[in-house]
Amino acid sequence: MKRQTATQQTVFNDQEFADRYARKHLKMARKFGREYSEKLKNHGFQKGRILDAGCGFGETLHYLAKNFPETELIGMDLSEPLLEIARSHNSQSDFLNKIEFINADVHNIPYPDEYFDVVLSINMVHLVDDPLKMLQELERVLHKNGYLFIADIRRSWLGYLEKEFKSGLTVEEARKLFSETDLREGNLTSGLLWWRLEINGSS
After folding, report:
1. DSSP H helix total and E strand total for the chain
2. What distance in Å separates the CA atoms of residue 3 and residue 124, rounded to the nearest whole number?
3. Angle at which helices 80-91 and 15-42 pack, to 10 degrees?
4. What CA–CA distance (Å, rounded) separates 46 from 71?
5. Strands 194-199 and 142-153
6. CATH code (residue 36)
């Protein structure tokens, strides 16, 4: 199946669309929060700085905040409507002073080298204009002993049922993209819906 360009840019400026997007993806965001919390605990992670690059409505970070109370969490996204949802949920939670949500571009992350102990990028590779530049930025801000979790939809026959999957990369395309970056070695896996790259502190 030939890849098609993603068409979800409306979420950047339309609050109604952002609200629908958040409702549709709520379970997914919580699932990733639960999964990555468990993996970090299994690696012995307890506290540090976590960045969610392309955090959307922030639900994954809320889950991580519950599990790592001594951790500083940053969520960044270009969509102000999605960030408004994230901030609203945050103001009603117990994590008001733990999570900061900023409007920023994943192509130019406004933090110094090796600033974060954990970096997440969920459902972003197929959306950004320059995935290579984004990945280079993720590597730049990740501590040399840090943890990187990247997950994105996998292009497959599911694209005939759900148009969004037509814009994803195949596993082979993802592997080729990673080979063109400075990303340290990690474990690339795939399932029916997603491919994932995970890099832990000992890689």
Report:
1. 5, 7
2. 15
3. 60
4. 8
5. antiparallel
6. 3.40.50.150
> How many angstroms separate the CA atoms of 112 and 157, rounded?
41
For the chain, the domain total comes to 1
Q: Is residue 14 part of a domain?
A: yes
Asked if residue 1 is part of any domain, the answer here is: no
Phi, psi of 194, deg, nearest 5 = -130, 155
pTM > 0.85: yes
With both helix axes pointing from N to C terminus, report the angle between 131-141 and 171-179 in degrees, rounded to the nearest 10: 60
**Domain membership of residue 94 as a residue range:** 9-199
Q: Which two tokens stand for residue 62?
A: 């809320």
Task: From first to last of the 203 residues of the chain, give the pLDDT tens digit.
Answer: 554 555 555 556 888 888 998 998 999 999 999 999 999 999 999 999 999 999 999 999 998 998 998 999 999 999 999 999 999 887 766 665 679 999 999 999 999 999 999 999 999 998 898 999 999 999 999 999 999 999 998 875 444 345 564 667 888 999 999 999 999 999 999 887 889 999 987 55
Q: Give CA 76 to chain center in angstroms.
A: 10
Assigned domain for 19 exists: yes
119 phi, psi to nearest 5 deg: -125, 130
Residue 28 maps to a domain: yes
Q: Amino acid identity of 82?
A: L
